[in-house]
Amino acid sequence: MRASASKPIVANSRRTTSSTMAHYMKRAFPIYLMVLPGLLSIILFKYLPMFGIAISFQQYSPFRGVWGSKWVGLENFVRLFTEQQFATLLKNTLILNLIDICFYFPAPIIFALILNEVRIKWFKSSLQTIVYLPHFVSMIVVVGITNILFASEFGGINEWLASVGLPRYEGLTDPDHFRWIWLLQNIWKEVGWSAIIYLAALASIDPTLYEAAKIDGASRLKQIWHITLPSLAQVVLILFILRLGSFIDIGFEHIFLLQNPLNLVVSDVFDTYIYRVGVQQGEFSYTTAVGLFKSVVGLVLVLAANAIAKRSGREGVY
């Protein structure tokens, strides 16, 4: 009797659960519809192309395809690690990334803190707009303007320097100046846009905390140190962990546009090497192996940083 009595109860509970789920999905259908384009984009352009990783273990031929190409195992990875240029590529990539983390990564945080302290509304909004605008300028235009201004022979600034008897600035062809030009262009173009998420985090801070600090006699600097910075700490940590995911992936376009034969010794990174060897020379399997190596390094760094954050009592990415 007990077993037979329990069956209708279970069946009824399942019907109730399914009807509740159907009702919820029906109510949330517009939201699912809104998410659908992004979900399809991720599947089509992020997950499906991962099938191409297989060619990094092959001697891939476009005529034979993935299924007909010869499998060579780890041969492409062995070639990468024994390549004469590997040490130079790794060194240049690491140095650029360390410069980026040490100087560019804190720049939006500092800008957001400064902007948060501005009390004149029209000046604050004007400054925000001015600093945001470079984000919408193509990097090709930014590098093109730099070339026009600092070209060795006919650059506007170099012509002016020569006219007043000063030496020309050869920053575009001097390997010692390449990294700092790259950094300054990144900061000028993206610092305002990157600061948006920090400004949003600052706007969410409870204003009563500042009021209580004022009553206790805390100066503005102490309020920033004891209230603002701790409130930003979690956001900074999450973005830093995510930034480590692209630690070996410094980016192609900007480096490639600034690159020339005279600064190649410091500007050649994995991304430009992949373009030169993979696209121009057609070594698809080998350069896919290079790309997979970059992705694995980024994944390991994210997992390690997230684990360290968890052990130190902070919330990680997941």
From TrEMBL:
Biological process terms in GO annotation: transmembrane transport
KW Nuclease (keyword) present: no
Gene3D superfamilies, A to Z: MetI-like
Domain of life where this protein originates: Bacteria
Annotated transmembrane regions: 31-57, 94-118, 130-151, 191-212, 224-242, 284-309
Keywords annotated in UniProt: Membrane, Transmembrane, Transmembrane helix, Transport
ABC transmembrane type-1 domain location: 90-305
Pfam families: BPD_transp_1 (PF00528)
Cellular component terms per the entry's GO annotation: plasma membrane
Entry membrane topology: Multi-pass membrane protein
UniProt key word Transmembrane helix: yes
Location of the protein in the cell: Cell membrane; Membrane
Family from the record: Belongs to the binding-protein-dependent transport system permease family.
PANTHER family the record matches: POLYGALACTURONAN_RHAMNOGALACTURONAN TRANSPORT SYSTEM PERMEASE PROTEIN YTEP, PROTEIN LPLB
Protein name: Multiple-sugar transport system permease YteP
Organism, as annotated: Paenibacillus montaniterrae
